[in-house]
Amino acid sequence: MELRLVDVMGTIVSFDVRCGTADPAAVHLALVRAAADLHRADFVFSTWKPESPVSRMRRGEIGIGEAPESVSEVLELCVRARDASGGWFDPWSAPGGVDPTGLVKGWAAERALARLSSVPGLTGAMVNAGGDIACFGRPDPGREWRIGIRSPADPGVVMATVDGVPAVATSGAYERGAHIYRPAAALAGTAAATDPPVTSATVIGPELWLADALATGLAAGGATALQVIDGLSDYHGLVAFADGTTNTTIGCPVELFDITPAA
């Protein structure tokens, strides 16, 4: 087993690698390249770093054709995610210009995992980018990866678990504080304006980039956005509200725990 932590993208990204019969040197090289990929994504897409290509695009200093090719790739995914979310995920609605960061962390973590999954003999790995989690294989023979979802009221408490899924993304105020935009186009004419405030939104599915974007949209749209996810094939959602209630899509594979404090 190999464990690695990388401080990047405003969070700690952890790698849990089950090496199996893989060459240790190949595992080490894959981890180095995966970390480099994450730092490159941080440099390109950060809206906090004024010199990043995305920050320069937001100020109108460069066009998309002058930015790294990965920017075009991510923005194309953003269009797909906006359509899939019913408009609840909309990077073009952000103040100050387009902000794809609601998708980028999941996209980058998935790319980092791909570095590891290509290593011959490696039996499994999990990448956790501040609650955006991608995994493949198994941690041990006969056992699937088990992912815990933290309580928004107490991040030290697990409110749900899910087993054997390739991607889980959670959006909330755990790491970055309040950072969710509510797109006016999606909000108009919906009941979401009067829904209880969302404290945590989790999406489970086959691809982390889309799960990450959908979780961002779910945090913005609450119960109304959850209905959109309910209509998507292979994706499920769990949302926690400020009043202490939770709701899920039909057939959501999470195991929920009663975390209500004892009287």
What is the topology?
Layout: E1 2-8, E2 11-18, H1 24-45, H2 53-58, H3 69-84, H4 101-117, E3 124-129, E4 132-137, E5 146-150, E6 158-163, E7 167-172, H5 184-187, E8 198-205, H6 208-230, E9 236-241, E10 246-248, E11 255-256
Antiparallel strand pairs: 1-2, 2-3, 3-4, 4-7, 5-6, 6-11, 7-8, 8-9, 9-10
Helix pairs in contact: 1-4, 3-6, 4-6
Strand elements, count = 11
The largest β sheet comes out as: 8 strands, antiparallel
Separation of the first and last Cα atoms: 42 Å
Helix content: 25-40%
CATH-defined topology: T-fold
What would CATH call the class? Alpha Beta
The mean pLDDT is 91
Question: Can you describe this structure?
Answer:
The chain has helices at residues 24-45, 53-58, 69-84, 101-117, 184-187, 208-230; strands at residues 2-8, 11-18, 124-129, 132-137, 146-150, 158-163, 167-172, 198-205, 236-241, 246-248, 255-256. It has 263 residues and is α+β, with helices and mostly antiparallel strands. It has one domain (2-137, 144-256): Roll (T-fold). The chain has an 8-stranded antiparallel β-sheet with strand order 1-2-3-4-7-8-9-10, with helices on one face. A 3-stranded antiparallel β-sheet has the order 5-6-11, with no helix packed on it. The longest helix is centred in the last third of the chain and has 23 residues, at 208-230. The radius of gyration is 18 Å and the shape is globular.
